[in-house]
Each structure stands twice: as structure tokens, then as C-alpha cells.
Amino acid sequence: MDTEGPEIEGLERIDNDIWQVPIGYKPGMRVPGRIYLSDKLFTNLEKEAVDQVANVATLPGIQKFSMAMPDAHVGYGFPIGGVAAFDAEEGVISPGGVGFDINCGVRLIRSNLEKSDVDGKVNDLLDSLFKAVPSGVGSKSRIRASESELEAIFTNGSRWAVEQGYGVEADLTHCEGEGCIEGSDPAQVSAKAHKRGRPQLGTLGSGNHFLELQYVDEIYDPVAAEAFNLKQGQLTFMVHCGSRGAGHQVCTDHLRNLTRAVEKYKIDLPDKQLACAPAQSEEAQAYFGAMASAANYAWTNRQIIMHHCREVFEQQMNMDVDELGLDLVYDVAHNVAKLEEHDVNGGKKQVYVHRKGATRAFPAGHPDVPQAYRDVGQPVLIPGSMGTPSYVLCGKQSAMDVSFGSACHGAGRVMSRSGAKHTFRGEEIQKDLSGQGISVKAAHPSVIAEEAPGVYKSSSEVVDVVHRLGIAGKVAKLMPLGVVKG
Prior knowledge:
Layout: E1 12-15, E2 18-21, E3 33-36, H1 39-42, H2 47-56, E4 66-73, E5 80-87, E6 92-93, E7 105-114, H3 122-132, H4 147-156, H5 158-163, H6 169-173, H7 191-197, E8 210-219, H8 222-227, E9 234-241, H9 244-264, E10 277-278, H10 282-317, H11 321-324, E11 328-333, E12 335-344, E13 347-356, E14 359-360, E15 379-382, E16 390-395, H12 398-402, E17 406-407, H13 417-423, H14 426-435, E18 439-441, H15 445-450, H16 459-469, E19 472-485
Parallel strand pairs: 3-4, 18-19
Antiparallel strand pairs: 1-2, 2-3, 4-5, 5-13, 6-10, 7-9, 7-11, 8-9, 8-19, 12-13, 14-17, 15-16, 16-19
Helix pairs in contact: 3-10, 4-10, 7-9, 9-10
């Protein structure tokens, strides 16, 4: 090892941005681990995250590598930023590879406005957005979904919202999977998850969730930017949230079932947080059906939030939605498992790809990329951290070879929330950001402290790694103007 950073015995550098966790690093590894990091990001690498990459490599049916993206840090069982694919017949499905906030994700909305059009109006916009989209722990919506409506949401995802008037058909064709995962099974969603999900549609939640007003600061790839309808100086808007209490409850419920399944199927695990079951077992399929239902809830949630935000822009800018041009560029899931076909060892294979804090990054020509983007690759949306840039990239062919069509999902934390609250004061962070021309609105200053830019890695450094690896190419840089924190 020839760079500064943590001393992790056994970790091997095999290329500039590629670190290998060799078979034998931990007993029982079936494949090597791969961690994608620059020298600078390596200095923040946690040994526990490396151990988690190695632990995942012991799971039955894992293919090629257990991987961690440049934003990786320690998570529940799998690292956040982790990617792993398991044979659809001989492998496993694990909730730890998805996480508690099922289909936490990001959507980007473009506009016909320019940055100068909102000069002097940002704080009014933030105040109205804060009122229109309930935020914070346990926040509740003006919508109360009935049982039959919840079932339709779990089954159909964003389409339900569009059919109820919360959006337009084009929103569906500019969304990963058209806002729905096939294979949902609402019967596997508990009554408690129903109860938690019923009052939370169209709410932001807490933690790192946000609404962010941005502008396009720089274009790197004019061809892809034109396909995405982005141009320099343009006003954009980003939504980051997930499946709220419904998704958390689905994960909690099925973790109990899959923990029992580990004993039933005699799976030897190095960490009980990797609870799993054979992919075709009734326990794994029950989880997958419930997880897909929660993922569809999350897409519905972001669709409704976007609708409420469009209404706010219409009122504040005194323009209708057509004049504003508030079109969805794309929506990507971060925490999800999907059944996909990939090339493995020279042949096509069906695998369950677990992306936990990772973004799908399919290249040009892939049939799952929306027709409008088929010539350039799917948009890959990488948010920053209040005071730092967000990025739009496009999926590249190398992602299919290197990472099962996956890229990073954000900057990645370097400090816990409790550590952040001891280190930073929300009022000071808010003042500092205001000095940089960035307004922040939050329910409480402690939320701002938890999410201070200083608790995250550099989004630019993380994005540069996936760009150099050819997983996803940089298209545009977005700078924040105002943020509503959950």
C-alpha cells in the first residue's frame, strides 16, 4: 500500500481507483471484494466497511465481486454504497442489502427558468415548499389513503398518483422502471406497515431527506445534457426521500422472518445482520414482494411531492406549469433489490442485484433506459450535501462489466449524526451557508447540524472516481440555492 490512510492488513490496490479485498481476507469468502476509491477517499475508509464487504462475499450464490462504491461507509449488514448480485436460483435475497428506507431515491426536475428569475424569491419559495410538503419524523400528509388505495399504490407505484391527478404521463416515462417494480405482493405487507404508510404519502420525512432548489453551473457533456434538456444557468429542483414508515416496517417485519430462515436453511453467516434466505424460498419471495410494494410506495410518495412542489412554483412565480416547464428529468432508486439479466462469466444470467446506497447506471442502448435517453444512457443523479454541488451523470457500458450496472448514490457520510450534533451548531451552519448564497429551512437547527456539509465526503471527489472508472460519465454540475431539510 503506497498511499496515506488507514492500515488495513490484506487490502490490495490493483489499480488507481480499485482496491481488492482478496478471498481469504475473511473465512468463507466465495468471491473477492472490490472497493472503488481515490487516494483522498481512501483516507476516510473504515475498516468495518471493508469487513462488511468481505462478509457479503461469503453469502451463497454471490457473483463476481462484493462491491463498495466511492461513497461507501458502514451500514446495517451490508455497507452503504454496497452492490452485490446473487444467482436467481442458487443465491439469496437479504434485506440488509436493501436497507430500512426501501427505495430511498432522488428525482430531478428541470425548468424553463433561469437562476436570475428567482433572485430575491428563494426564501419565499422555501417557506411555501416547507408548508406544502410536511417534513420531520412522523410527519403526516393531507392525504389519507384508503385500504384499497394503498393496495393500488403498493401494486402500481407512480401510475396510481398520475391517475389521481398528481402528475402527467410523461412523468412515468422519465422514471426508473416507470415508477414501479414488478413482483410486488401487498399481501406480504403487514397491518402495521399499512397503518404507518396510510397518512404519510407526500411527506418528506427526516434525516438526510431534502428538497433543493439548484441551478446548472457547468455542462461537461453537451450531447447528453441536450438529451436531458439541461443547459447552463437553468433552474432545477431535486427531491430526496423514500418509503417512510411503511418501508421501515416492511424491513423490520421481514428481518425477523429471514433471521429464522437462516437457521431453517442452515446458512452460515459471519454477521446476523446479513439475515437472508434462498432466493426461491417462500421467505425470500415474501420479502421481495413486500419490498417491491414499499418501493412502489416510495415512487408514489416522490410523485406526489413533485406535484405539490409544482403547485408552489405556479403560485410563487405566477406562471402555469407549462410556462414553468417543470418536467421530470429522471428518478432513481438508491435502496432496492431487482431481478435483472447480466453477463456473468461469458453467459447471460438472472441475478438479484442488491443496491444499497447505490444507483442503477445502465448505458446507452439498454432496453430499460427510457426511449428519450436510449442514445446516451440513463441519467445518474448524485446529490451533494447542502453547501456542495450535485451532479448529473449518464450510465456507461463499463458499469455493466465493473459493477452490475451500478454507480454511487451521494457523497457518503464520514461522521455519525450524534457526532455531528456534538461537533456542529445548526445556527452557525445556516449562517455560513447563507453567506455563500444558500438558504436553508428546517424544522429544527439540530437537523441542519446532523447534515452539515462537513459530515460528508466531497461529492466532487466521489463523482470523479466513477467518471474515471467509466461507470458513469459527468454531464452537468448543479449548485444549491436553497434547501428544505426533512
